[in-house]
């Protein structure tokens, strides 16, 4: 009986991994990433940056980050913000979303929505990229600016696989995640 349950669990892992590859098209970029470092030729790297998130689906991306080391100005509402507050926010935010293609280790983005019209009208941006485990490094061409990011979500196999007790998880953890329960046995 234990052998049968183990074989079924192994089969579930194989099906999940197979489904994950087809769902992402084998694209290692797909997922949500947190910015952990920003480096360019104009200054020292920022190793503790303000919040930033890069999200990739199979064909689309969304990049949002607060540039620099200072948080956004604190004001009670947009209608009470001073012109200086609004300029500071505009200058600090990087917003860019659209479609992308990958050729080898080159990422090419084409903005559909951005903070500035010139970013949407231009040819887009190109990056060399590497994904190692849960780490992503983007090097913008030709400037050489480097962004380091870390994957935010759990690996897909763990997030989607609900194993019964004794096969890789604690029953309480699975139940809290909405997985294994008495009725599903």
Instruction: List low-pLDDT spans.
Output: 1-22, 157-161, 168-185
Separation of termini?
Answer: 14 Å
State the major sheet: 8 strands, antiparallel, barrel
Strand order in space, largest sheet: 1-2-3-4-5-6-7-8
Give your account of this protein's structure.
With 185 residues, this protein is of the alpha+beta class. Helices cover 26% and strands 34% of the residues. The protein is built from 5 helices and 8 strands; from the N terminus they run αβββαββαβββαα. The protein has helices at 2-24, 83-92, 117-121, 156-160, 171-176, and strands at 31-39, 52-56, 60-66, 93-103, 106-114, 125-132, 135-141, 146-151. Strands 1-2-3-4-5-6-7-8 form an 8-stranded antiparallel beta barrel. The longest helix has 23 residues, at 2-24. The two termini are 14 Å apart. Residues 1-22, 157-161 and 168-185 have low confidence and may be disordered.
Give keywords:
single chain; eight-stranded antiparallel β-barrel; 26% helix; disordered C terminus; 185 residues; alpha+beta
Secondary structure: elements and pairs:
Blueprint: H1 2-24, E1 31-39, E2 52-56, E3 60-66, H2 83-92, E4 93-103, E5 106-114, H3 117-121, E6 125-132, E7 135-141, E8 146-151, H4 156-160, H5 171-176
Antiparallel strand pairs: 1-2, 1-8, 2-3, 3-4, 4-5, 5-6, 6-7, 7-8
């Amino acid at each position: 009986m234990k052998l049968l349950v183990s074989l079924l669990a192994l089969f579930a892992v194989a099906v999940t991994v197979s489904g994950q590859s087809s769902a992402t098209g084998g694209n290692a970029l797909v997922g949500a990433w947190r910015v952990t470092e920003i480096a360019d030729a104009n200054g020292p790297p920022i190793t503790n940056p303000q919040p930033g998130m890069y999200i990739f689906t199979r064909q689309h991306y969304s990049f949002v980050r607060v540039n620099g080391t200072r948080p956004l100005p604190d004001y009670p509402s947009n209608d009470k913000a001073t012109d200086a507050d609004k300029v500071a926010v505009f200058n600090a935010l990087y917003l860019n979303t659209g479609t992308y293609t990958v050729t080898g280790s080159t990422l090419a983005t084409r903005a559909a929505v951005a903070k500035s019209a010139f970013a949407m009208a231009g040819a887009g941006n190109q990056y060399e990229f590497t994904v190692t485990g849960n780490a992503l490094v983007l090097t913008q061409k030709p400037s050489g600016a480097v962004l380091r990011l870390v994957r935010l979500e759990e690996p897909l196999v763990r997030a989607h696989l609900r194993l019964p007790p004794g096969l890789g998880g604690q029953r309480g953890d699975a139940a809290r995640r909405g997985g294994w329960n008495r009725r599903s046995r």
